[in-house]
Structure formats: structure tokens, C-alpha cells
């Protein structure tokens, strides 16, 4: 009998070419697969709740995998032992035995990202924030962010030539806040396109600088042309901070 497990992870993405495995590049998925395989003694292949781009961080990330053993979640110090194998950039928080049909990606109902802009140069935080010293009009940026919830097609903010079947997403929340020396953007949606958050942030910065108006921002969304939107911002400021599953989904939790 094959058993399905969920693993809750976090990682600093600076040294990795994103989550998803790819040839000739070191990815988080590859490292996690190898570490689990060593510890469990089986060939483990994880499936993530999504994929983050090169240099993007994840405070909270879920993946699932199958294996023959049915007691991994009860083995004393299993997570501790896994963390001893994993590099310092990746942490395992917890492991769960799940229902056989549970799926980390397809069962997630929302993802939340945080983008951090530091207005002052901070050498101790340079891998986690984007330094941008020019003044930004946060009120205008929030007015533009509110427009995002009126639309579902975000082709204008999607990386070109991807393999997705639709560019439709439902955005539930999008807001800028000031936190000390940082300006932070939080956005929550049912799904995100490749490069979407970084492209949205880059375009909203143009609003905050007064280079485009709210009407321009609306037009950019409606024209569905990536070349009309702003440049994608530095990946180091982007953090996946939450993946949410329905309460009824978690009732299938076995351990």
C-alpha cells in the first residue's frame, strides 16, 4: 500500500533556481527529494503546491509525496533528522499522513505573497528586500491595487509562452502598507501566473512614481499585452507567505 504525506516547508530562495526541478540547475524540489529519499530509504518525488521563480523565498510551502512506509509522521525526531540533512536555506516544519487523494497543488484554495521594498540600503537584509529609495505615493498605489479585484484575466502580467491553459485568476486581496523602513505589498489569489506578482509590483511602482495614472493602469490590464505593463521587479523581495486549504479538506488529515 502506498501512503501519501504532506510536508510543510520554508526556504530562502537566493541560492536556488526556484522550486521546480530543471536540468543543470539546483532547485529546492531536487534538494528536498534527495534528502527525503536518504532519510526514508525510498525514491521520493515531491509535488509542490506551486512553483516559485529563481531567487524567490517561501515562508510557508507545502508539497506531497508517496511512499510505502505508513509511520513516518510518528517516527521520533523525523523532522529534526530531516533538517540535519537539508541545507541551511531550507527548513522542514512538519509532516502529515494524508488521505490518498490529497493534492498539495490542486487542493489549495489560495496563495498569499508579500513583496518587500526597503527605502534605505540595508546590507543585512539585502537578500530579502528590494532597495528602492525614491518616494512612492502609497495611497495611489492602493487605489490601483483595488482595481485588480475587478478583473480575472491577467495576461498583461504573465510571463510569455508559458504552458498554462488560462490566464484567469481571482484576486481576493491586494494592499500596500508601510512597515518601518519598508513598503510592503500583500496579495492573495486562488492562483498566480508565472512572474505575475513581480510584474504587478513593477507596474504599481510606476503608479506610485506618478509615471502612469489609474486610468493607464486599468488600460494595461484590459489590453492584455505584457509589453504594456511595467518591468518585473527583483525576485529577492518576493515571499510566498501562506498557502490555504479549506477546513473540510483538513478533516482528511490522518496524522
Number of strands: 9
**Weakly predicted, low-confidence segments:** none
Quote the CATH topology of the largest domain: Alpha-Beta Plaits
Shape: globular
Computed structural class: alpha+beta
Strand fraction band?
25-35%
Largest sheet: 9 strands, mixed
Query: How many separate domains make up the residues?
Result: 2
Mean pLDDT: 93
Rg, alpha carbons: 19 Å
Q: How much helix is in the residues?
A: 10-25%
- The CATH architecture of the largest domain: 2-Layer Sandwich
CATH first level of the largest domain: Alpha Beta
Order of helices and strands: EHEEHEEEHEEHHEH
> So how many helices?
6
Structure, described:
The chain is an alpha+beta fold and 255 residues long. It folds into 2 domains: 3-106, Pseudouridine synthase I, catalytic domain, N-terminal subdomain (Alpha-Beta Plaits, 2-Layer Sandwich), CATH 3.30.70; 109-242, Alpha-Beta Plaits, CATH 3.30.70.660. It has helices at 28-40, 78-85, 138-148, 196-208, 214-223, 247-250; strands spanning 3-11, 47-48, 57-67, 90-98, 108-118, 130-131, 171-179, 182-189, 238-245. Strands 1, 2, 3, 4, 5, 6, 7, 8 and 9 form a 9-stranded mixed beta sheet that branches. The longest helix is centred in the first third of the chain and has 13 residues, at 28-40. The protein is globular, with a radius of gyration of 19 Å. The two termini are 17 Å apart. The mean pLDDT is 93.
Amino acid at each position: 500500500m502506498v501512503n501519501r504525506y504532506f510536508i510543510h516547508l520554508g526556504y530562502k530562495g537566493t541560492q536556488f533556481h526556484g522550486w521546480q526541478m530543471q536540468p543543470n540547475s539546483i532547485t529546492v524540489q531536487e534538494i528536498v527529494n534527495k534528502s527525503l529519499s536518504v532519510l526514508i530509504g525510498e525514491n521520493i518525488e515531491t509535488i509542490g503546491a506551486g512553483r516559485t521563480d529563481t531567487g524567490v523565498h517561501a515562508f510557508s510551502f507545502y508539497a506531497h509525496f508517496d511512499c510505502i512506509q505508513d509511520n513516518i509522521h510518528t517516527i521520533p525526531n523525523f523532522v529534526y533528522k530531516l533538517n540535519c540533512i537539508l541545507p541551511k536555506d531550507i527548513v522542514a516544519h512538519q509532516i502529515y499522513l494524508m488521505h490518498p487523494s490529497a493534492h498539495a497543488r490542486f487542493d489549495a484554495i489560495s496563495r498569499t505573497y508579500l513583496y518587500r521594498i526597503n527605502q534605505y540600503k540595508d546590507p543585512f537584509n539585502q537578500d530579502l528586500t528590494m532597495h528602492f529609495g525614491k518616494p512612492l505615493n502609497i495611497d495611489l498605489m492602493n487605489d490601483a491595487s483595488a482595481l485588480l479585484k475587478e478583473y480575472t484575466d491577467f495576461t498583461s502580467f504573465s510571463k510569455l509562452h508559458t504552458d498554462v491553459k488560462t490566464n484567469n485568476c481571482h484576486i481576493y486581496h491586494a494592499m500596500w502598507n508601510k512597515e518601518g523602513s519598508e513598503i510592503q505589498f500583500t496579495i492573495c489569489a486562488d492562483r498566480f501566473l508565472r512572474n505575475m506578482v513581480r510584474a504587478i509590483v513593477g507596474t504599481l511602482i510606476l503608479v506610485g512614481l506618478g509615471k502612469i495614472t489609474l486610468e493607464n493602469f486599468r488600460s494595461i490590464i484590459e489590453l492584455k499585452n505584457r509589453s504594456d505593463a511595467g518591468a518585473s521587479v527583483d525576485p529577492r523581495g518576493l515571499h510566498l507567505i501562506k498557502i490555504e486549504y479549506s477546513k473540510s479538506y483538513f478533516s482528511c488529515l490522518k496524522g
